[in-house]
Amino acid sequence: MLTYNEGSTTTLDHLVRLAFSHGALDNNKLQYKEPFSDKETLVRFQDLLEKKLDFKQLPTDSSGQYKIEVNFLPSRFQPVKGQHDVTLVTHCTSNHLHYLLDLTKHWKGPISLAVFVPGYDVVTTYTSLIGLHQCDHTFRDRVTVHLVYPMSHPPPENELGTHLKQALNHQGNCDEFLARLNNNDVAGEHNWNYANVKVPYPNNLLRNVGRSSVPPANYIFVVDVDMMCDGNLYSSFLGLAQRLNLFTINNDKRVFVVAAFESVRKLSPSATKKELLELWNLGSVQPFYYQACWKCQKHLNYEAWKSYHFSDNNLQIAYTIDWKDPWEPFYIAPNHAPLYDERFKQYGFNRISQVCETHIAGYDFVVLDNAFLVHHGFKTKEGFHSAKDEENNRNREIFRTFKKELKFKYPQSTRHC
Fold it and tell me: PANTHER family given for it (predicted)?
C-alpha cells in the first residue's frame, strides 16, 4: 500500500504517478482498484477526479448567473442523519483561504465554506483547497467546500478536469505549501474579495450556498472568514442548546448574538472574556466597526456586555435586546431563519438585509455572555476599496425596494426596519 505522510517531501504529482504504477488508479478510467484509507492518502483522488468535469453541466443558481458545485470537497466527518449540531458558515475567494488555518483552530465544529471562483482563479483555488485538504487534518476532517463560478467569467474553455489535474500537479510538500499559504503566496491576483468590480462578489449567494448543506432544524453561525471566535464557543453553545432544549423546541425563534471586536493582533483560541476585557482596557481591542461604522454595532450595548458576569462557568444568555436599525449583529441562528437576498453583491446592505428580515419575521435577539468574535486589525473608513461608496449607494436602492417587499411578505408583522 502507498503511504504519504504530512510534512513529506513527496509531491502529490509523484504520488499520483506512484498510484498509477502500483495499479491503485486506472490511467484511463481514473478509478480506484483498491481503496486508500484517509491515513494513506491525504487527497481523495476518486472523489476529485470523478467530479462532473463539464462546467456547462453544473447546476445554475436562480438568477442564471452562476454555476454551483456543492460538496466539491466534503469533510471527512459527515453528520449522522438526524444529528443535532451547529455549523459555522463562511465564504471567500482564493486570496482569503489562508484564514482557514486559524478558523479551524477557533471553531471546533463543522464548517461549511463557499468559495467564489472566477475563471482566472480556478487553478489557484483548486491548488489551495487541495493543499489544505492534504496538509491540514482539521480542515480535512471538518470543512466541507462548495464552489460558485460566475458564468460571466467561466474557467478557460469551460474546462474543469484539466485545471483540476493541473492543480494536483502543483502540489508540493506540506511544509512548503503551508508556509506559502500563510504568506498568502498561493492566492489569486486580487487582494480583497471586493477588489475586482468587473466580477461582482455575490456574498449573499455564497452564504446561502454554505447554508444549503445544513439541515433546517440545526443551527448556523454565519461569519466573515477573517473573524475568529473564542475557542470554546462550539462546545459551549451545544451545551446551552441542550439546557434550553433548542433542538427539541419546534421552530424556536431566537438568534444568539455573539459580541464582535477588532484587535491589533491575533488572539489565541484559548483567550477568555477576562483576557479580552483586559486588552480592551489597554486599547489593543475595540468593538467591531468602532471607527468604520459605530452605529452599525453600538446597539449591542457593549458596556452592558462588558459588565455582565455570571457565576456559572457555562455559556449563558446575558440579556435580550430589541433590534434597531442599522444594527448588524453576528449570531448563531436556527437554519430556518430567513435566507440572504442574493440581489445584494459587493459592499453594503448584504448582511443587514437578512438581519432586518429576521427581525420582521419575528425572531428575538438574545446576547450571549462569554462568547465573542475578533477581527484581526482595526477597520477604518479609509481602509476600504475604491468602489465602496458607489456599491453602497447602489445597494441602498435595492434595500429600499427590499423593505417594501417585506411588508407584503410578512403582512401580519408589526415590526419594521
Answer: BETA-1,4-GLUCURONYLTRANSFERASE 1 (PTHR46420)
pTM confidence score = 0.87
Q: Which residue has the cell 423593505?
A: 403
Q: Nearest Cα to 164, choosing from 259, 30, 60, 274?
A: 30
What is the SS3 assignment for 287? strand
For 271, counting Cβ atoms within 10 Å of its Cβ (0-12 exposed, 13-18 middle, 19+ buried), the class is: buried
168, 149, 163: which is closest to 56 by C-alpha?
149
Is the bond preceding 326 in cis, omega lying within 30 degrees of 0? Answer: yes
Residue 110, C-alpha cell as written in the block: 463543522
Say whether pLDDT at 34 is over 50. Answer: no
Give per-residue pLDDT as tens, 282-334: 999 999 999 999 999 999 999 999 999 876 778 999 999 999 999 999 999 99
Q: Which H or E run contains 235? A: helix 233-243
At 169, list the grid cell: 500537479
Q: Which residues pair with 87 in a beta bridge?
A: 220
Q: Reduced to 3 states, what is the DSSP secondary structure of residue 147? A: strand
Per-residue H/E/C for 45-56? HHHHHCCCCEHH
